[in-house]
Structure formats: structure tokens, C-alpha cells
């Protein structure tokens, strides 16, 4: 994990807008997430967790805090209760996860192909298309709970999904930092 300073944000948003970030860190693990959150606390700076940048518009003025780029990758398969579950890192590209799911013989999220963004952002917005939404197939979300200062696994029901909403962008906005989805 390397701290960068004075980073132009235009390269991290599909809208190609934004000033500069005072601090910028790309994280690749849960341990790095904890380190970067500790850094923000010690420096007393605001932070923003960034996924793929497809739903982010930065202001043209500089951001005086820390941008945390979630680049936690990884795909694992686990057999549970006679079914196969795919665990996907929050930094993986959503469309790559859809493609993997289809090649493994699952079609439950096939209609969600070509939606830009990262896997960690998918449950935040409860992305959807053609009558399907991510909450229809998601089993759980692993996230860091800043209120309790622990990693938690939240079931689909605990995510409080509704049309294009979840607890992550409503009642608990900024409380949880998603690291993987199942």
C-alpha cells in the first residue's frame, strides 16, 4: 500500500471530472483497509471509498481528504448446502463477475451484463436491469463495520434491499465498507 499525494481524480471517474485528491491509496486487502482507515483517523481527514468510478462525480475543486480506491480482487468458489457459491472481491469489475457466472453455468445475473462498476458497488445501489437486480442472487456481503470496528457478514435480508437502494446508501451510508460479495 503506497500513499500518493496530489492525485488528479479525472482518471478515476467515468465522467472525467474532478480536481485533485490530497491523499490517495489503493487497497488490495482487508488489512490494508484497516491501515488506511487508521491513517485517515490519525490525520483527521475525511475519506471517500471509490469503486469503479461509474457512479461518481468529483467536484472540480480539490478534495482535501483521502480517496480510498477499493482494489480488493479475488474469486473463490465454495460448496455450501449442496450448491456452489462464488465469493468475489469488491474491487473486481462487475461485468467480469457476470461473465464468470455465465461460464460456470449460472444465468441468474446474466441480464446484469455490461453494467459498469465494481462488485463492491453492486449491492450498494442494488443494481438491476431487465427485471433482475443484484439482490435477487446475492447471498451475503462481507464488510467492515466502522461503528462496531469489526468485519461482518450481512445476509441478503440484512442488506435491506429495495429498488436501487440498500442500507449501504440510505440508513447506514458510510458505515460499512464492502470487501466481498457471495
Report low-confidence residues grouped into runs of 5 or more: none
Count of runs of 4 or more consecutive helical residues:
3
Order of helices and strands: EEHEEEEHHEEEEE
Strand order of the largest sheet: 5-6-11-9-10
Alpha-carbon distance between the termini?
A: 26 Å
> Could you state the oligomeric state of the chains shown?
single chain
Question: Rounded to an integer, what's the Rg over CA atoms?
Answer: 16 Å
Write out key terms for the chains shown.
182 residues; alpha+beta; 4-stranded mixed β-sheet; 3 helices
Note down, in words, how this protein is organized.
The chain is 15% helix and 33% strand. It is of the alpha+beta class and 182 residues long. Strands 5-6-11-9-10 form a 5-stranded antiparallel sheet, with no helix packed on it. 33% of the residues are buried. The model has no long low-confidence stretch (mean pLDDT 93).
Amino acid at each position: 500500500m503506497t500513499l500518493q499525494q496530489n492525485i488528479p481524480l479525472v482518471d478515476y471517474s467515468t465522467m472525467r471530472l474532478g480536481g485533485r485528491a490530497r491523499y490517495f491509496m489503493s487497497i488490495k486487502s482487508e488489512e490494508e483497509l484497516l491501515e488506511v482507515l487508521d491513517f485517515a483517523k490519525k490525520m483527521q481527514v475525511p475519506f471517500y471509498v471509490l469503486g469503479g468510478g461509474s457512479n461518481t462525480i468529483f467536484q472540480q475543486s480539490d478534495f482535501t481528504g483521502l480517496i480510498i480506491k477499493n482494489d480488493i480482487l479475488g474469486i473463490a468458489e465454495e460448496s455450501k448446502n449442496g450448491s456452489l457459491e462464488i465469493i468475489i472481491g469488491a474491487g473486481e469489475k462487475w461485468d467480469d463477475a457476470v461473465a464468470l457466472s455465465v461460464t460456470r453455468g449460472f444465468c441468474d445475473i446474466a441480464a446484469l451484463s455490461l453494467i459498469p462498476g465494481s462488485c463492491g458497488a453492486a449491492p450498494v445501489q442494488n443494481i438491476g436491469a431487465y427485471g433482475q437486480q443484484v439482490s435477487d442472487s446475492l447471498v451475503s456481503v462481507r464488510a467492515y463495520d466502522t461503528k462496531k470496528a469489526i468485519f461482518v457478514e450481512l445476509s441478503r435480508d440484512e442488506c435491506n434491499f429495495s429498488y436501487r437502494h440498500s442500507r449501504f446508501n440510505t440508513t447506514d451510508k458510510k458505515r460499512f465498507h464492502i470487501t466481498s460479495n457471495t
